[in-house]
Amino acid sequence: MPGSAAYAKLAPAARVAKTLIPALERIRDAASAADLQEALTVLREYVPGLSEARRPGEVEEALYSWLGSLALHLSKLAPEGAGDALLAFALDDVALDMLAILEAVESGSRPPRPATASIEWAPTALIARDPEAASSVDRVLDVAKPFKPLHRALSWAVEAARAAREPRVYTLAHPAVSYIIYTQPLGGLDADSARWVSRIVCPMLRHRAARAAAQAVLQGLEPRVVAAAIPPIRDPYCRIPWGGLRELAEREVEEDQLLAGLRQLLPDQGLEGRSIVEALEASYRRAREAVRAAALQAFESYPLHLGLAVAALALARLSLESMRAILTAKALRLKPEQYIEALGVEA
């Protein structure tokens, strides 16, 4: 396992990367901008690809390209065996696209164009260039093979969907797929790095698991679909109560019972509010705050560890989510008060 000396090249690069991420003040400036073009002007100094963006789809592609380039750059500086933990921050969204493609293939419909196709090194870019790569489930899995955590996660999702004989499993399985992508590389890290990675990534993974259970209940999905998509993972890293969430999601419960169950299973997740929607919004804000706090603490820690690069990428992901939401809202001409609070970027 790599020790602190192995991160001598990566640590300075991570600190430089942190300076290339829009500060909260700039995110607030973009949110307060009069229109989409003014918001793009504020942010394009950080994400050069936004200079050419005119439509929401082009904005999203520019943001994914930015994050993908940053993740690849830092992964190349990481010691052997540590790069997958960094690529995970881009492959998370790639996985969501590939799950949608797998669902379409299994359903016999036309696969959607992946939003992450702008990440040139990602398997979704190959699928966008060669639609035949998405002609079957096996072809899709073959494209993912160079990325071991992604391939393992998607292979599990395929087995789960086929066992349930239900393509809808793919969409609901994204939290578990994300968990595999982020945590599989931890076994090859030194203890200090693994601990920091867990502290940074787990708050959002817990939120996603809660959201998946809530969606399953609210959509009235059959127990066999829920059981396939929310596996009873033994979780030594994030301590997500997968089994309890699965049991809750399999039951027919009213919204207030669902909310009470989630609060009991995840008492520290900030599930506050009168409705499940309010509670999940509060949980998302709490998760963002926890990720940001852990990432900033990592930059103050010593000795050197992988958590510095993970922290930079976690902050980049938070910024990407904020920028994507703000720029999409500007394109739809929504008022700032309709989305700023949910992102936690209010003054």
Q: Report the C-alpha radius of gyration, rounded.
A: 20 Å
Structural class designation: mainly alpha
How helical, in percent, are the residues?
A: 55-70%
Residue stretches low in confidence (pLDDT < 50, at least 5 long) are none
Shape: globular
The rounded distance between the terminal residues' Cα atoms is 43 Å
- Total helix count? 17
Per DSSP, what share of the residues sits in E-state strands of 2 or more residues? under 5%
Structure, described:
The protein is mainly alpha-helical and 347 residues long. It has a domain at 189-305. Helix content is 66%, strand content 0%. It is built from 17 helices and no strands. The protein has helices spanning 10-19, 24-32, 36-43, 56-77, 83-107, 123-129, 137-144, 148-164, 169-172, 174-183, 191-218, 223-229, 242-250, 255-265, 276-299, 307-331, 340-343. The radius of gyration is 20 Å and the shape is globular. It starts with 9 loop residues before the first helix and ends with a helix. The mean pLDDT is 91.
